[in-house]
Design goal:
This protein is mainly alpha-helical and about 200 residues long. It has helices at about 1-40, 45-100, 100-105, 110-140, 145-160, 175-199. InterPro entries: Snf7_fam.
Length: about 200
């Protein structure tokens, strides 16, 4: 049983460490955003883009750390349940040994079978946890989506009160959104009219 309790401690420690790493990435993201703003103010767009990519990467890493922390917490909760159940089972076994009449009426083979099943489920949980960790480590992405970089550059420029001159070519500014909205409105109006006719 001490090995299970040690595993529980290690899981809780790992979850805390992942949360710390997430907060660290959040701080790094803020630092990179400040650098983006400074670079934009100086007119150095290449440096601004690099810092924007770094900020997006830090944000993604923060989310990944937080997600993994939550999953490790969930596993720790299951292990905690297993530890508690094992302690309860030992206590029950002690009581049963002290009560001959109760011992005769209880089916020890059934209890043993349940314990074997419980241990098998815990081994399955270990395998699933290892699989989940492998999956999380293999899916951590280092690529930075360009649309997020562009969005961050615009956001930082807006905060700095500057214009990036990176807008859409003339003629594509507002007409797309309004035409889509009006088409959706026409479709809704037609559907409403059909419903009224049916009633």
């Amino acid at each position: 049983m001490p090995s299970m309790e040690k595993n529980l401690f290690n899981l809780k420690f790992a979850a805390k460490e992942l949360q710390r790493n997430s907060k660290k990435c959040d701080k790094e993201e803020k630092i990179e955003k400040a650098k983006v703003k400074k670079a934009i103010q100086k007119g150095n767009m290449e440096v601004a883009r690099i810092h924007a990519e770094n900020a997006i990467r830090q944000k993604n890493q923060s989310v990944n750390f937080l997600r993994m922390s939550a999953r490790v917490d969930a596993v720790a909760a299951r292990v905690q349940t297993a530890v508690t159940m094992n302690q309860v089972t030992k206590s029950m076994a002690g009581v049963v040994k002290g009560m001959d009449a109760t011992l005769k009426s209880m089916n020890l083979e059934k209890i043993s079978g349940l314990m074997d099943k419980f241990e098998h489920q815990f081994e399955t949980l270990d395998v699933q946890t290892a699989q989940m960790e492998d999956t999380m480590s293999s899916t951590t992405t280092l690529t930075t989506p360009q649309n997020q970089v562009e969005s961050l550059l615009h956001e930082m420029a807006d905060e700095a009160g500057l214009d990036l001159n990176m807008e859409l070519p003339q003629g594509q500014t507002g007409s797309v959104g309004t035409s889509v909205a009006s088409a959706e409105q026409d479709e809704l109006s037609q559907r409403l009219a059909k419903l009224r006719d049916q009633m």
